Amino acid sequence: MADIPQDLLGQIKYLEDLFTVPASKLKEITDHFVKELAKGLSVEGGSIPMNVTWVMGYPTGEEQGTFIALDMGGTNLRVCEIVLPEEKGEFEIIQSKYRMPEELKTGKSEELWEYIADCVQQFIDYHHEDGKLGTVPMGFTFSYPCTQDYVDHGVLQRWTKGFDISGVEGEDVVPLFEAALKKRGLPIHLTALINDTTGTLIASNYTDQSTRIGAIFGTGCNAAYMENVGSCPKIAHLNLPPETPIAINCEYGAFDNEHIVLPLTKYDKIIDADSPRPGQQAFEKMISGLYLGEIFRLVLLDLHQGNACTIFEGQSMTKLSKPYSLDASFLSLIEEDPFENLSETHDLLKQQLGLDAKKPELELVRRLAELIGTRAARLSACGIAAIAKKKDLQAPCHVGADGSVFNKYPHFKARGAQALRDIFDWPASTIQQRGKEDPIDIRAAEDGSGVGAALIAALTIKRVKEGNLIGIKHADKIKKSCLS
Ligand code: BGC
User: Which part of the chain is the Hexokinase C-terminal domain (predicted)?
Assistant: First the structure.
């Protein structure tokens, strides 16, 4: 960085101070996080919802049958047909993806359900032309915070990830969607409404029993784990045996909505204020894929407009001025630029933003991407560490992780792993003894929203068969349509 002018060097230093999260801060965040997880399970509740899912235990590997899994994440819609065969831990899957039209995300409730049901219909028509499909159980992955009194029920608490569809918050989404399915006469019974994290936990545990946490690092962020009923005072009134396992969808994107411990910058505050739900998802807004490009954009614009340095002087900022015009893949490309002269970054800025950046400016841009990406990975690790601490999870503890940021963002995994080492102070010897696997190891998950959804539908049907009907609203319908 020898040839960088003083003013830009000063700004790089300023950004480093702003975005670097030292080990001591990670530890402080994690400790606060552990308390907040417990608070979410208490009767009074806290800002982390800690939603009870009514998924009561891990799969055995013996689950069988044919299922439809529907995945409504943030970016795409996916319909899958999944067969769980006799062989333990195996599955077969066929699937189709559909684009989630941008206008739907801020449209009306009915349009959403009609569109999704149309996609399911297209899928069934295409794969079952002969019309010979009997009633199939469906696991619906609806990856937004829902209050679930039953596994086949879920009242949307609030939209996240930039969605803002009127008429859904505060409603049970199951009958809303079922009505659209019914209208089309589709042979499907919505057996389980699940979150992507719970699906990930269950699917990953199906193939690797050391999996204790399912996590998503994608457009949004969140994790699920298996709790015991005795640690959930908010369902104590149900008088279930305290050792009963129950999966909790933490919804920890809402961690620190009160802004007590997270190192918020002025850019994070702008993102929050300008979002459809200010005051919500504080943690998610600092670390998830939807926001990384926006943080980056806001910083560059601020540096250009401020007096502390000269950057992109005399160039048009029209493109950079458009909110949410950059996504996390823009930062990924910058971080992946292999060339010393950052020529790929130069071309990217030129093509997408119409900016002709000089070498020192490119250096700042690259460092900024690294800082934002590293902060996201390090803060992400705090959520995982908090669950591990709360549950005193011991090695080998695998975390099944999915999502675009985890799968595609360069160095995210290594940075997250380093953050866990910083939080837990694992001695090098512990890691060497374990053949280089960390005591808590975050690794690529099985397909949670597909296989996980099918497994949870199967587990629900199994409970109906056994007469264990806790947390199942329409056991009668399941009996009639899926067990006859
Ligand atoms: C949602 C969660 C989801 C996460 C990852 C968040 O915005 O509230 O339900 O698990 O994104 O998709």
Answer: 212-459
Cβ(221)–Cβ(416) below 8 Å: no
158 is known as an active-site residue: yes
Handedness of CA 468, 470, 471, 474 (dihedral sign): positive
Predicted pLDDT of residue 216:
97
Q: Are 119 and 111 in contact (CB under 8 A)?
A: no
Residue bearing the CA closest to ligand 1, atom 11: 220
Whether the Cβ atoms of residue 200 and residue 456 lie closer than 8 Å to each other: no
- The average pLDDT across 130-144 equals 88
Question: pLDDT (tens digit, 9 = 90+) per residue, 158-171?
Answer: 999 989 999 999 99
Please provide the distance, in angstroms rounded to a whole number, between the alpha carbons at the two ends of the chain.
Answer: 71
pLDDT tens for each residue of 199-224: 999 999 999 999 999 999 999 999 99
Nearest-atom number in ligand 1 for the CA of 144 is 9
- Where are any strands of DSSP class E within 229-292? 245-249
| Assigned CATH topology for domain 62-194+448-482 | Nucleotidyltransferase; domain 5 (3.30.420)
Give the start-to-end residue ranges of the domains of the chain. Answer: 1-53+197-446, 62-194+448-482
Domain 1-53+197-446, CATH class in plain words? alpha beta
Whether residue 330 contacts residue 337, with contact meaning beta carbons closer than 8 Å, is answered with: no
Q: Name the catalytic one among 47, 78, 158, 422.
A: 158
pTM strictly above 0.90: yes
H-run or E-run covering 224? strand 221-228
Which pLDDT band, with edges at 50, 70 and 90, does 258 fall under?
very high
364-417 pLDDT, tens per residue?
999 999 999 999 999 999 999 999 999 999 999 999 999 999 999 999 999 999
